[in-house]
User: Which sequence fits this backbone?
């Protein structure tokens, strides 16, 4: 790929631009529907924390079941058709949820089953997208490309919950879910219009699935910097998900916030995240990828201490806005750097398996933490569960702080990756 001079060099790669727009559209819908599903459960289905944990587990369970195999498969096929199929499945599943809710035919078990399908689609899309993107831009542009995706996600995070809160207040929670079904369908159409051809992966030959799985896992967990990064990230997902499983219920039922107020607090993470993601590549170059990721991991537990301390009412809204603003800074700083780094140090033939391996255990933590958070909250209460989760986040930050990942840097010549063995 030739150099792309100019103020907006990524615009020279139209295939990436279409992927970027498609991802932004579907991500915006996802942040709208996430709040919609939670309020649908609480106010339409009468769900408690245990029910919420069950549905959350169903959404992320596909990663535990299919995640590693998906990585092997994605290294053997073109990734764009997988992305289109995943968006289509998500659109149909979410449209069915909205239709059943509008007709009062939805139940918690039915919702869990349909969210399992949404989770399956999400797993294949995210694993495929991270492995597909490096084929659309040169390696030297990957930090910028991942930064733009991260900025778009955080922008959607700032707008989506507010839109969701307004939709829930003015129309209904099912309407928010219907919007997400439409955005996934639109994303599939945009991806289908990508004109750039994708190289056909090499023939599988005599390769065996178990051997490929072992090779992908070995690359991650024997790598000097990827191994501690991955372990710390798995713990981060566990602690973070323990809190996010309960957050809407906690804010609505314990602190007395309505849908719009809850959406407003969540949106603050998106506002600060956009700003932090824009600065992230430059800060990573100056201070190092590892140092910036470590800093962001310590920011997260600090943000959730503020969530723990929030009082009911209007003051609580302000404290929670501050908490999620701080949280957004940590997410925005880390997202572009970790995505570009782990793909830059991994050869293309292993990227699908590398991303799927890490994502399988990350999202597997979401499947485990959902029912765990619900059970802990029912037995002990919301605040003790949040305290336990903060402890897990501190442990996650400690793992990467006292490891070689702290000194990680982007390769000097990122166009040649994976030359060294892990």
Assistant:
């Amino acid at each position: 790929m030739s150099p792309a001079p100019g103020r907006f060099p990524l615009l020279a790669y139209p295939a990436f631009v279409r992927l970027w727009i498609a991802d932004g559209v579907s991500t915006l819908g996802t942040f709208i529907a996430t709040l919609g599903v939670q309020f649908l459960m609480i106010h339409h289905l009468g769900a408690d924390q245990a029910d919420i944990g069950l549905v959350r587990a169903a959404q992320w369970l596909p990663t535990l079941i299919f995640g590693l195999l998906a990585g092997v498969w994605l290294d053997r096929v073109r990734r764009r058709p997988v992305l289109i199929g995943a968006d289509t499945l998500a659109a149909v599943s979410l449209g069915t949820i909205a239709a059943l809710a509008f007709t009062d035919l939805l139940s918690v078990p039915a919702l869990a089953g349909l969210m399992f399908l949404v989770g399956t689609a999400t797993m294949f899309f995210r694993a495929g997208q991270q492995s597909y993107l490096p084929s659309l831009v040169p390696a030297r542009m990957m930090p910028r490309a991942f930064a733009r995706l991260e900025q778009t996600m955080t922008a959607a995070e700032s707008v989506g919950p507010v839109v969701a809160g307004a939709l829930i207040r003015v129309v209904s929670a099912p309407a928010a879910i219907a919007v997400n079904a439409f955005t996934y369908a639109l994303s599939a159409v945009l991806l289908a219009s990508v004109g750039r051809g994708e190289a056909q992966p090499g023939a599988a030959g005599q390769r065996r699935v178990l051997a490929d799985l072992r090779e992908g896992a070995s690359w991650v967990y024997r790598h000097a910097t990827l191994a501690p990064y991955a372990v710390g990230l798995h713990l981060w997902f566990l602690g973070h998900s323990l809190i996010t499983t309960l957050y809407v219920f906690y804010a609505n039922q314990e602190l007395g916030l309505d849908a719009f107020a809850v959406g407003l607090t969540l949106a603050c993470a998106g506002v600060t995240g956009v700003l932090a993601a824009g600065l992230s590549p430059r800060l990573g170059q100056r201070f190092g990828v590892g140092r910036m990721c470590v800093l962001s991991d310590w920011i997260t537990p600090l943000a959730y201490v503020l969530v723990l301390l929030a009082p009911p009412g209007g003051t609580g809204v302000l404290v929670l806005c501050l908490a999620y603003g701080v949280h957004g800074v940590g997410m925005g700083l880390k997202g572009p750097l970790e995505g570009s780094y782990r793909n830059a140090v991994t050869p293309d033939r292993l990227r699908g398996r590398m991303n799927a391996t890490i994502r399988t255990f990350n999202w597997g933590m979401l499947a485990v933490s959902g029912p765990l958070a619900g059970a802990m909250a029912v037995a002990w209460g919301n605040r003790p569960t949040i305290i336990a989760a903060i402890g897990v986040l501190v442990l996650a930050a400690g793992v990467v702080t006292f490891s070689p990942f702290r000194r990680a840097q982007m390769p000097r010549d990122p166009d040649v990756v994976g030359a060294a063995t892990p």
In short: The chain has 13 helices and no strands.
